[in-house]
Amino acid sequence: MRSSGxxxxxxxxxxxxxxxxxxxxxxxxGGLSSRPGCECATPSIDRYQQWLASGEGTTxxxxxxxxxxxxxxxxxxxxxLNAEWHVVVLWLANQFxxxxxxxxxxxxxxxxxxxxxxxxxxxxxxxxxxxxxxLTRIPSTGGKVVRKFFSLSPDNWxxxxxxxxxxxxxxxxxKEARGLVFVGKTANTLTFHxxxxxxxxxxxx
Length: 205
Hints:
By secondary structure, the protein is mainly β. Helices cover 11% and strands 37% of the residues. The protein has one domain (24-197): Jelly Rolls, CATH 2.60.120.430.
């Protein structure tokens, strides 16, 4: 029996995931990005409205929203310049004063492209400020768009001596999650296309 067209596409999809490693699949530009019909009334990516340049480190844009229109959808784009720490922020509940309980979440899928490695911190409301946070590495994609799963198991999160050891347990970070904070110390060109958190749907503001 000859394979159907769907079977060939599915096989290619699985092969791409195996070549890139567990939890990662390569996607065509816009292939797994946000669905306009599920978005908020104001610009958002999978209902996340607040993708922000913090003003820490030399970035383009320097401050403000990273969201730009990409056809019928939006992507979040930022460039890190120079060998210094850069910080961009995503508010998980779409406002600074709010937080999300991710204590039962298995993790999140991130659709993105990056030209260099960086890290993402999970910052709780009760310990928001400072660099001494639990984090996990986001690997470079060589500029290609990929969709990768990041587990919220404590074993997959660590800290960097240069930024300091967290004074709170990882369970606090998941229970009181205010934001994902993306940090990197090298030049990088980043584009975020999608974010899906297991067991959590952000409210539109």
